[in-house]
Amino acid sequence: MATIYRINKGINKPIEFRGLKGQYIGYLAGGLVGLLLLFAGMYLIGTDLYICLPVVAVLGTALFIGVNRLSHRFGQHGLMKYFARKGMPQYLKSRSRRIYTTLKQAKK
Prior knowledge:
- By secondary structure, the chain is mainly α.
- It has helices at about 25-45, 50-75, 80-85, 100, 105, and strands spanning about 15, 20.
- It is about 60% helix and about 5% strand.
- It is elongated.
- Pfam families: DUF4133.
């Protein structure tokens, strides 16, 4: 029995899938690919299957919960704005007035 998921692709509206908006869908997809590679690597090096499956299941659950929390906390573009704000310096130090005194000369 197939389940049909609705994807909102309205004009000027963010793409949304099961509550995840915008870039968080990509973060979830990247995380799932990483978990698949982790499982394949663990399986290939000979780790017992009863260890591989719970590790991947716990990390997958943490991934889903984490991405869902980020999506609901920050919204579509809020995470990028948050990191941009954290990247801004609190203040600028200038030990010389030369920068300000030569501004008019630089325009000519």
